[in-house]
């Protein structure tokens, strides 16, 4: 094993040396560094370096997404078959091992979700490679996470060509025009989601997109429904899911957003591994709870009548906002994007709080599209530099205040100095 | 008021091969060299021609900006080589030592009785001045300014660095003379920081403000202590001196002789018997390196500690400011799936399948591999964990990169030196060259503001 490793290592090194400076070098290096951490040594500054690099960081986020992805396979299948049963007048009751964790569910979900993952990665990385080769820089790792996030935040039946167009738009306009990974202002995954949402609204909202097969069966005798909880609430209708279902994720929704439980685990893992900011996550949760409480309070005071179009969502228990829709997913995996979020500790508290707060606000006040989290995050992405600016100003002001008491002393005498007397011993 | 300084943010990097507390005398070196890159930004003017003879303590060159500032030869002998680089810039001077050493002796100066001008003149002409460094800019101190305070850090937290409580034991008399003299050069205080609970040779000295510091690296860096004790404002100057250089200053004052002898730690995982050696500034590193033995073939020899030192070779020479020589393995090898594997043999501040957080006391054998490629800044909040100064590190680095003088000033560039960013550089996920960025920022600031 180690022998073949060594031969491979030497061969790849030889190619790397030959490719150096050539146009396709970034493309080769991307594959090479994927296989082997490079043999670069330190040239300036510290001679030893810490273990983490950007690949490891991105990989950690992907690890935190794997459980969500696996769950989405089962849930996609389960929701599909449950909807068919319901349409046939035989509503299912959940039985975790009996009718959820089945091969049938898994396979259906697998076949539906994996093409989304493949298209997302192939198109996105294709664009990244293209830009790297044209601009002569290395392929940076940012898209590794984006590429995994994108399939998880779209409805399962999103046509693949649509996804491909959106990915090209998101990567080019959302990221590359700003200079690539680390330079973008908006979260690329959410830019892709926003593009889909505004370009193809009928595929991104309504009651026909959240369950596999609902679109193609619409209007036929086999029609099934796939209304989300938020969709039902927006119409002041009842929903038929228990809190248990909502928390563990046995509900319709975007591919990966449904299981608040697994998202919570992912969030804890990311916070523990110090890859994502716990400050953003915690403050976003607080922000959404506060907004939810305000709405509940308004209902309790009797300021809105039951006939109001906002009543359904306003009276929704404040804490349940966290376990339906994409709020939890957005908070854990998207709001914590370090590039587009606030960069200072204090800024992160403000940034996260406002994301939670505004997400729930948009949810309630925009019942036509009852999903606010991606708009709230994009909005706060735009404001993050402003928040940071004011946080940093506080530090600058402290320094300027100190400057008033600066001790600036007169210069020492500059007179010609006498030579010292010296003797040789 | 003397205060206890407790630093919480930081990271101790424990490495294999710390020097054992035993000292040998290094064999005397045939050749000595002064590396002029040790004096950042200096414009030297030679006073001895190539082939000329010098005595120990006789000036080799002076600073063109301050012609009274002499840089003296550590030994007597012949100036055999003036190594020049691009645009004939002098890189180093090499002196072939005489068998019989001739030493230049000045009239000793009683620091208690002398006035500031006399002390300044003595230090400048005797070759001791370059030991005094200033902030802002982290360069040899400008003698025309009066500093608001002088700082000495006698608390060592850098990985594998020489333990000065050990090397400076018994040098109290010299250090006291040097500190008394320095105290006359500032109307402010001379702040000396020692490790809390450590037995420091500075404990009994007078005329100083003694601070007791505790906490992980970079608590021992003088920049961290300045930031806590009396931060630098725009227009202010403070001076810093390393403790081992106080001994040379003090001895010059007491005896009139510039004695470049110092005890140096030879450390690192490549050294068979890491220990201390007594040698002189500019001595060939091979004169003591091979006495301890080197384990591996592909090693990097570093003048200084592994975070801030400069790369040299066994044929290189001990730097002007260094009391540590570190020898660690070169890491120019590939690692299969190094970015995905769980890591137990490297240091990390994250817990992303890296496990150094489980074993804070474990000693590591780190090599010079970068463990990844250079990238744009992506991750945030990581530097702040190891950066105890009241400064936003990433924002300051970025200001230096886009060369915004106003922002560099406002964010506190006056207060820092490149070494303050050595730990953020160590943990940087994007492998950005922090110390170089800060140095370039300081150069620009000095050029524009002065």
Taking all Cα atoms into account, the compactness measure Rg of chain A is 27 Å
Overall geometry of chain B: globular
Note poorly predicted spans of chain A. Answer: none
Principal-axis shape of chain A: globular
Oligomer: heterodimer
Instruction: Please give the domain count of chain A.
Output: 2
- How far apart the termini of chain B lie comes to 32 Å
Count the beta strands of chain A. Answer: 2
Secondary structure layout:
The complex is a heterodimer of chains A (425) and B (450).
Chain A: H1 2-19, H2 25-35, E1 36-37, H3 54-87, H4 96-100, H5 103-135, H6 142-152, H7 160-174, H8 188-199, H9 201-204, H10 214-217, H11 229-234, H12 243-248, H13 260-272, H14 278-300, H15 311-314, H16 327-334, H17 345-365, H18 373-403, E2 422-424
Chain B: E1 4-6, E2 20-25, E3 31-35, E4 44-46, E5 53-54, E6 59-63, E7 66-72, E8 77-84, E9 90-97, E10 104-106, H1 116-126, E11 133-135, E12 139-140, E13 149-154, H2 164-167, H3 172-184, E14 190-195, E15 209-214, H4 222-229, E16 238-240, H5 243-255, E17 261-267, E18 275-280, H6 286-292, E19 299-303, E20 310-312, E21 324-329, E22 335-336, H7 393-401, H8 405-410, H9 422-427, H10 434-449
Parallel strand pairs in B: 1-15, 2-18, 13-14, 13-16, 14-15, 17-21
Antiparallel strand pairs in B: 3-9, 4-6, 5-8, 6-7, 8-9, 11-12, 11-16, 17-18, 19-20, 19-21
Helix pairs in contact in B: 3-5, 7-10
